[in-house]
Amino acid sequence: MDNIISDFFKFIWTNTNIHNISNVLSLINAVFCLWFMYQYSKTKDIALFFKLALYVFIPFLIIDSFITIYLILIKSEKKTCYEIMFHHILSLLLIIWALFIGIQIAPDVIYNLMLFEISTIFLNFRFWIKEYIKKLEGTANTIIPSVIKISDKIIDVLFTVTFIYFRCYALLKNIIFNKEFYNILLTDGLFINKLFICVIFVFILLNFYWSSIIVKSIFKQLQIFIQSKVPEQDQVLILIEKIHLDIIKCRNDNNCYN
Fold it and tell me: What is the DSSP string of 195-231?
């Protein structure tokens, strides 16, 4: 067990793939966001957000945006890269609004948006486990440890649940369908607050779009799993159907009974 864990983390640490670098930065950013949420829930100190945004969140988004642009230029998964760039642009707009206005008038809204990063942690480990499995599959005479297979399924479930809950359900419940949210933002009549509301609506649409992809992937995996578990039963049913068709054919052909 210890050898498997150490080998897995060694794989992460020594992997210089550009996607891996992006995921390491993403994990660091997510951990700092969780630290902020924990500290804010205890102290309600909004000054912590300025440190997080200036020293962690904005640098991460800028660096990762350059990484994404590089991937677009080398034509690597362009569709996914465009989606990530769109997400980063939305995130930067939200951070700028939060720095100048949001954290002063609606810190709880910022807190709820930070909850997104909980699913990011599972997303990163999901990527690493699947890449690690690919590495093992590409190695001759190597059996994938059961702990890795089980971890892969557990992380898939945790990622799916946290993504849909925090990025869709909690966002709808705590912000989109929260009347107080609109009362706070619309009372002063500032255009930037109205723009922020529009960005939030675009964010929820993007999250629902990604959720639909995740759900489709789950159904596809379930279908493959079910098919792999009942191949013999399927073969028996096919054989029975073939015999049934042969009997019908023979009955229609008098020569079979002459």
Answer: HHHHHHHHHHHHHHHHHHHHHHHHHHHHHHHHHHH-H
Q: Nearest to residue 178, comparing CAs of 154, 152, 200, 148? A: 200
What total number of domains does the chain contain? Answer: 1
Chain segment 83-113, per-residue pLDDT in tens: 999 999 999 999 999 998 888 888 888 888 9
For the segment 200-256, what is each residue's pLDDT rounded down to a tens digit? 999 999 999 999 999 888 888 777 777 666 555 555 666 666 676 766 666 665 554
Tell me how far apart the alpha carbons of residues 181 and 178 are, in angstroms, rounded to a whole number. Answer: 5
Q: Tell me, yes or no, whether 253 lies in a domain.
A: no
Which range of residues forms the domain containing residue 128? 2-228
Judge whether 250 lies within some domain.
no
Question: Which pTM value belongs to this model?
Answer: 0.81
The DSSP call for residue 256 is: G
